[in-house]
Amino acid sequence: MNKKIPFLLLISTSIYANSTTLSIDKLIEIALKNSPDVQIGRLNFDASKARERFQVGYYYPHIDISAQADKGYSKFKTNSSRSIELLSGEITLYQLLYDFGKQSSSVEASLEESLSYKAQMYQIVSNKILEVKETYYEILKAYEIKEAYRKNLTLQKNQLYRAKKYLKAGIRTIIDVSDAKIRLEEAKRDLANAQYNIELLYAKMENILGKKISLNDKKLYRVKLKNISLLKQIPIVKESLSRLKKYAYKHRYILKSIKHSIKQSKSILSATKKSYYPTISLRADYTNRHLDRDVINTLAQRESHISLDVSMNVFDGFQKASKVEEAKLKMLMIKSQKESIKLAINQEVLNSYLSVRRAKDNIALNETILKRAKEKLSQAKKRYENGLSDFIELQISQQDYINSLIALKSSYYDYFIEIARLNYSIGR
Known about the structure:
Blueprint: H1 5-15, H2 24-34, H3 36-56, E1 62-75, E2 81-98, H4 102-169, H5 174-209, H6 241-251, H7 253-273, E3 279-291, E4 302-311, H8 319-385, H9 391-425
Antiparallel strand pairs: 1-2, 2-3, 3-4
Helix pairs in contact: 2-4, 3-4, 4-5, 4-7, 4-9, 6-8, 7-8, 8-9
């Protein structure tokens, strides 16, 4: 794709926007800061980093401190009895020395999990950016539709004025006035519905942003389209479909996430297999006691021990074998998910690529249709004024003109929506 496209997409919305308006860049910034789903993705990533640090902690010494206070009563064969008091403190150190790679595999698994969540977080960000762009261009399109209906209202007012004038002059009948009144009310209804649609889109945008900012036509930056061919005002996709697909396979975050999940599952499988091997560790204890005088000769006041421990499970009811089998199946399942995601991305890129081409062709066709509709409306007005046609022909020509105008403006913003979707589908 032409590298200028991202710049061209924003040039009309960010460069000329002032501080009192909300450009598409500002809306994206607000959404990424306030949207709950973006926050959830970030928190999931932070939690995975904490789990990674937890696994790394097994490499370091574990030191425990304990204290104990005992008071007891003893009776001896001599029928004498004693009250014994004992205070003691103990420090224990445990250090993992070697476990045949079990812990290193667990650390690798937690690292890959963290990278997977990081990619998921960026995928959520990408999803949010697309939502903002789609809704932003939908709002701009809705404004253009509203302006078309406003123009239609003006046409119907003028038509009612002419119908009354022709009736008074005896050129036309009362039915033309009645029809003009009906068309005028319909134009008012269409204009009101267009405004309601804008308000609904504003509500949708606020929901996407995760913050109520009271959007209105004064706050949202709108582009004033130039009075030249709209086809000349759009960015052009120059890259081939195959290059777009290759780019998508390399840059889509959802695919990056699943790749890290596969590596995680491999590390988990490796750690599970290594659980058959022994674990070698070092253990050291130091105990200091404050002894009662009656037992001072029978218990040591200070004790220290150091030991090299080798532990290995011999039989666990086939639990390790079951865990190994589960890890293998999970890895195969994730690999299948990767292939499914690649197929979905392939289809998504293809759909977006074709939709961009279709939207571009629609702009060109709609410009031609609007030009013909203008010519037809001009001819219909002259025919009606000269008594060569009835009101129905004129009304059809007016409606064709308005519909063509709406179709052209809609196809223009639909093109930018499809460009945004194409960029999303390839991970740009």
